[in-house]
Amino acid sequence: MELMRNFIGNEWTEGSSRIRNINPSDTSDVIGFYASADAAATNAAIEAAAAASFSWSRSTPEVRSDILDKIGTEILARREELGTLLSREEGKILSEGTGEVVRAGRVFKFFAGEALRLNGERVRSARPGVDIDVVREPEGVIGLITPWNFPIAIPAWKIAPALAYGNCVVFKPAEIVPGSAWALSEIISRSGLPEGVFNLVMGPGSKVGQALVDHPKVRAISFTGSVPTGSRIGLACFQSGKKIQMEMGGKNPLVVLNDADLDLAINTAVNGAFFSTGQRCTASSRLIVEDGIHDRFVEGVVAKLSKLRVGHALEKASEIGPVVSESQFEQDLDYVRLGKEEGARLAFGGERLNREHPGYYMSPALFVETSNDMRINREEIFGPVATVIRARNYDDALEIANDTQFGLSSGICTTSLKYAEDFKHKSAAGMVMVNLPTAGVDYHVPFGGRKGSSYGPREQGAYAREFYTSVKTAYTLA
Question: Domain named Aldehyde dehydrogenase: which ranges (predicted)?
Answer without folding.
Answer: 12-473
